Automatic annotation (TrEMBL), chains A, B, C, D:
Catalysed reactions listed for this entry: 5-O-(1-carboxyvinyl)-3-phosphoshikimate = chorismate + phosphate
Species whose genome carries this gene: Sphingobium cyanobacteriorum
Gene3D superfamilies found in the cross-reference section: Chorismate synthase AroC
Binding annotation for NADP(+): 48, 54
Official protein name in the record: Chorismate synthase
Taxonomic placement: Bacteria, Pseudomonadati, Pseudomonadota, Alphaproteobacteria, Sphingomonadales
Amino acid sequence: MSFNSFGRVFRFTTWGESHGPAIGAVVDGCPPGLPLSEADIQPWLDLRKPGTSKFTTQRREADEVRILSGVFEGRTTGTPISLLIDNMDQRSKDYSDVAKAYRPGHADYAYDAKYGFRDYRGGGRSSARETASRVAAGAVARAVIPEVDIFAYVSEIGGDAIDYARFDAAQIGQNPFFCPDPAAAARWEALVDTARLDGSSLGAVVECVAAGVPAGWGAPLYAKLDSELASAMMSINAVKGVEIGDGFAAARLRGEQNADPMRPALDGSNDGPLFLANHAGGIAGGISTGQPVKLRVAFKPTSSILIPVETVTRDGAASDIITKGRHDPCVGIRGVPVVEAMMALVLADQKLLHRAQCGE
Amino acid sequence: MSFNSFGRVFRFTTWGESHGPAIGAVVDGCPPGLPLSEADIQPWLDLRKPGTSKFTTQRREADEVRILSGVFEGRTTGTPISLLIDNMDQRSKDYSDVAKAYRPGHADYAYDAKYGFRDYRGGGRSSARETASRVAAGAVARAVIPEVDIFAYVSEIGGDAIDYARFDAAQIGQNPFFCPDPAAAARWEALVDTARLDGSSLGAVVECVAAGVPAGWGAPLYAKLDSELASAMMSINAVKGVEIGDGFAAARLRGEQNADPMRPALDGSNDGPLFLANHAGGIAGGISTGQPVKLRVAFKPTSSILIPVETVTRDGAASDIITKGRHDPCVGIRGVPVVEAMMALVLADQKLLHRAQCGE
Amino acid sequence: MSFNSFGRVFRFTTWGESHGPAIGAVVDGCPPGLPLSEADIQPWLDLRKPGTSKFTTQRREADEVRILSGVFEGRTTGTPISLLIDNMDQRSKDYSDVAKAYRPGHADYAYDAKYGFRDYRGGGRSSARETASRVAAGAVARAVIPEVDIFAYVSEIGGDAIDYARFDAAQIGQNPFFCPDPAAAARWEALVDTARLDGSSLGAVVECVAAGVPAGWGAPLYAKLDSELASAMMSINAVKGVEIGDGFAAARLRGEQNADPMRPALDGSNDGPLFLANHAGGIAGGISTGQPVKLRVAFKPTSSILIPVETVTRDGAASDIITKGRHDPCVGIRGVPVVEAMMALVLADQKLLHRAQCGE
Amino acid sequence: MSFNSFGRVFRFTTWGESHGPAIGAVVDGCPPGLPLSEADIQPWLDLRKPGTSKFTTQRREADEVRILSGVFEGRTTGTPISLLIDNMDQRSKDYSDVAKAYRPGHADYAYDAKYGFRDYRGGGRSSARETASRVAAGAVARAVIPEVDIFAYVSEIGGDAIDYARFDAAQIGQNPFFCPDPAAAARWEALVDTARLDGSSLGAVVECVAAGVPAGWGAPLYAKLDSELASAMMSINAVKGVEIGDGFAAARLRGEQNADPMRPALDGSNDGPLFLANHAGGIAGGISTGQPVKLRVAFKPTSSILIPVETVTRDGAASDIITKGRHDPCVGIRGVPVVEAMMALVLADQKLLHRAQCGE
């Protein structure tokens, strides 16, 4: 029940600050016997890695993960898996101003109000750097749910949305925006670059789909699958909204429009109905239905901008602040692998919880 | 870590089915010495009570709460507070069809897939009747956070939104819709009545504000105030979306538009800055900033409708189903006191968590 | 993580005071589909019931349990099981002195020191009456672990121990002491009666064995089976010591004496070794070995005695106190079904935890 | 609620195997602003360090701890504190036999039964090496409870007990046995040396006292201070018994003998009574009374011995095994700093839990 842990029986704890010597995660409750090595984790970290294009922060981090425990002869042992990533490119000098004045939209003031002081270097604990630990833990989670296929993508940047008619999953990895619509990707290039050159930033919407989730996962009432996912997504830096399935759009439908009608499975089996729609995002009553689990996540624009904003200092004096340093012009982009990781972590936990109560 | 509990140190557990003898909640971890009696809880239950207008279900329940433990001579003792509400008006006969076929949008199929069978009477455990327990628990939570003033209202029904220029908090209790805009309330009367007569239903958006939350509540990273609130809200029946502050709208802003600039407090004190905006909904880095905490919740339209929907039976045969019985044409309306209760429950827990780690 | 709950995925929460209207438990996380009715629970409560002989408290309680939720058509549904037992024979007048002065050995002073005040009637929340809720919850736990056979007995009262050479399990239910040695039972009759007539009380040792626990239950490191059992037993009123297997006696052995040697199973199977001893009480490294799980529990003498003891009042004045009312002269006796219940509750939880991580 | 974590709001998680690259702990929920550096932790680790005398294992470990997060400019920040200790002296070759046959008394068979396989090198996760992580975490806990003074000592080895009339706390650090009685220490030298030369091992009893614990800590019912301590102690390798206060001896007393009478405080204040005895070990009703918290812990003899014991192989064949390698002839000795650490960890957690519910 600590605050830096997530999950119930498959549970991870992250630690580390942006400018400390390292960051990491401890994954506990992992089933034994699963093949696992650094090579299974590193590719996901590479997807999130900073400095890969001009559309992400120019901080350079190798983000090489080491497994320090819980794996023996290439398989998980059932004991805690300690994952460690060294911080290489900390430039503490960039952050000296931040020690004195509060950056609006950042955790600066709130951390000071809560804890009395803070590690101000690069945002300290509240830095998005922490999400590397999640991505590493998420790679372990994927090993627990091989039946599930998870993919996320950016569906909207700065209010400019993809055209679902042009949706092509194969495109997601082909552009720096995790964008499934090549036309949108082309537009975003200009859009994000303009924001970057303006010293400004843009918000984004990330969508995530998990296919292959069997019916029956989710632990009502207060570990409902939608609750767990909402909690997981809202814990990601800069996220301010979560929708399961149609989300807010469902609030504008009538009952018959929002129904997900069922028909017998086409193969005549009784393994589960054929659903004719998926407004509910694959979850009913907090339990998966066997349809794809779908959600949308809103990322606010990066709070670190070069445009001056009114603020106050620690001493309560008026000041204007611009946030220098190396920042993502659109933090939602690198949020994609983080959203996927959190989806994997929730589903792995729910799989084991379901098994605990209901057996295989 | 059970599934029917919520909260970390101020923690409640609910139990009970729609058509069992009673429902209830156990509230654990409540500070001692707080004045509490049934009279402090009943008014909140009355707000949620069914059968109060033609816009809500015609089920008749007195919803009288009894305190069975944890209170002595009018004050909380610090031991578990057991709250019990008898079920009076169960008409199990209404639900006989439901035993055989799955109601789309309901938990029927998912519960069967998870548990192998279910208490089908009135939705059993997945019935919105459970939310009465939350409202009762929420009344206890309010006693823990007297410094906080919580109010919620419906801002949108079936896509028809209030006009914020006409927002009048005093109106909220003056109409059957918890609507702060009298003009909208008048329109909704026709809107909901039409849907009801059509045998259909409507979705709604509920907004909630908590004023008086001091800066510093929230337990990063995985008990961030926004995570906890999202989890709490998404656990309410029919909720499919949560926004903190501007939510998805923030994803369409640029960084300088979304900033919440600060200025020194007008009284010259250093008790916290004056915020010039509140896009973040009173939470930064998962911690309250001292601004009002604001969120929005999307309720899907009630799944129980009289319009036939395609479905399958337990045996896998095709069928069409209409859901008779007594249902809310817009379940979001009675969601208002539930949203308030969950807000109170989260804040009470976070207040105590903050005190645990950081002292008074 | 509330304080009045126990268990991790099979989890129960108790509530209620000695002299409130009722006491109860909510059992959460129970697997679905298990046959359960009041008739499965009541016999265990009857074993613990007060007023059955002159060797137990003369308080009269029917201790009739009602199941208020979580069971449908005779089977558990997987939703919370609410169990309620009415308090019938509260004589609050007996306890008026207790309001003012602290009974040594009781929780009176400690509760006041912690909470500022307390429900002093009959010990309030700290009364052994609460253990009825545990026994009820334990009966549900037994349904989860049909493969396990649990029995407990008193092995020692007031320092007078049974003779293991005369151990006869069939005798346990044949005397008011849960004593497996008829000769000891005969001696204890005089011993306990003398203490009772003296207005004094006696301590006892209870032993418990769980046969049929398969190898592999227990969740190292901090939910080791021995840790969980120790925590469970030490939570019972008046318990001050717990030994797993040989316990303190093992601390006096040499390594070769304390070893539990193994040989191949007699049937030639490789389902687990034949152990030639069980010093470890069936647990190694926190995990069950397939041998019987064995533990011993020390109950202190009932603190309520008619012999005056020096104490102080709430106001800090010196006073002498005798504790009138109806009390067990040896609270360990009625502890037997409670110890069994806690054993069942721990094992049910560990069975499900094992299944979560390692599958069936 | 993971298995390798302990504590509720002040919570630590350990990871690491005997022969992996490192071991460590993550401490979460620590209050901010406490002075902390490696220099505050290292001395406690040095007390537990192997290889310091011929009475402990000859494995050589520097056991140098590094703080990787959660401390900034010499003070705790309120974020997770990651502690890492490199493993330096792993001699995996010593353990090749262990891969094939089960060492009686060790976790070998149980781990295989649970997980299907295990890291057999040096006991892997079940090695007492893990306790270094606890000692490091315990040092952080001490910073949380400066008002408490904790000390532990060995009171008995191989059945040879200290003479309490000769108890001298100043002696504890003056001999390799943490023994407060110099005469006993002298006897133990021969005793342990004989066992060591015989290739055998001895059990021990460790006692621990925490002075300065204010009245009011402990969270009844299922986080009672005695429950938490029992769970904590029983989680230590080789521990098989725990007594709070008089423990099993209390079961042999009559009520009036076991009472802890009270008198008004000598200074006339009403800050708490003067207790005339402490049979209860400073805990009543699960809550501290303000007296010293006292407990006793039984360590079985080290299971690793050079005397052959009957066992079976992984393949189910009969075998005799001797456990070569470097082992403690009496593991209880090095258990002393571990018992102290667990005491500190429980008390720090309970202090914060008390503050959460009841304020300062």
